[in-house]
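Re: that chain you flagged

S.,

Sorry for the slow reply, it's been a week of failed gels. I finally had a moment to sit down with the sequence you sent. For the record, here it is as I used it:
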Amino acid sequence: MLPLKNKKVLITGGTGSLGKVLTKRLLSGEIGIPKKIIILSRDEAKQHFMRVEYEHVVAATDEIIYNNFKRLLEFRIGDVRDFHSVASAVKDADIVFSAAALKQVPTCEYFPFEAVKTNLNGPENIVRAIQEHGLNVETVIGISTDKACKPVNVMGMTKAIQERIFIQGNMRCPNTRFVCVRYGNVLASRGSVIPLFHKQIMSGGPVTVTTSDMTRFLLSLDQAVDVIFAALNDARPGETYIPRVPSARMTDLAAVLIGDRDIETKITGIRPGEKIHEILVSEEESFLTEDRGNFYSISSILPEVKENGQIERALQSEYSSKDCVMTREELHTLLEGYGLLLEQQSASAEGELLR
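Prediction finished late last night. Pasting the structure tokens below so you have them in one place:
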């Protein structure tokens, strides 16, 4: 069964790193060619560059994928903070992927209410539009983060409440399935640590790490999309899907990327709102967590949403990044597989690449 065949799909925040990879995967037809893909975002420049990128692809295989570009892909300027923008886009959708967010931890700490307006009002506007207008949306998938689990920063706090807004949406809109996905750091996405380390290395250093103990879950953008597709295919209403992925110490990540270069690693101290370790499933949530192969699923805490039946508990404690740390050799293999290792050049030569 191809769940997206002839479906109309809406991606909020579709011009971001995840949104772009999600769009490419949707257009590949691996889970069915949609009838329409709507990209909703507020940045006209990013929409323009994304449109041009798809119109000027030269590889033969991509020409097949994007041949129906004008028919399949539609760009809409709008802001998830604005109910009317959201309602206008959602009314044309069968499936909604909610990826719009303020996601930089320090930014959210210094502008907390801006995070509230995007990360909370946006999801609420989606649920409200479906409820008030009686829309025939089949599934809404909320994109969350490990920072939503036992949150200590504004970004995580808003994402934790976002999850609850979507999960409770199953009660407000009983004909729509609301589910969430939650995962850790995405390798080389915009704003992630790897592009920063690359730039620091190419500039001759130092490479800055906030604390020597810090660990993070790591997965690729395609793995992030895999979680979304798994939830679309298999998640029950109110469930949150979690990938089973490895983690790494940030000092090891820096060391592997530096390689044999004579570049200093500098410890700078934890930034506002940072955790030393991230958690994908809390100890409290472990009682509601089931094994789904390459994923865990967390059932809703709401009895009105959770399906009846005994849960076969898959975890006996929290699922933390400190418990599944890769060796440097394993991390080197992972980064090499994704083409994220810089070629061994002199620092001065690499510095020239930036000018």
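What I noticed first: The first helix runs from residue 17 to 28.

Talk soon,
D.
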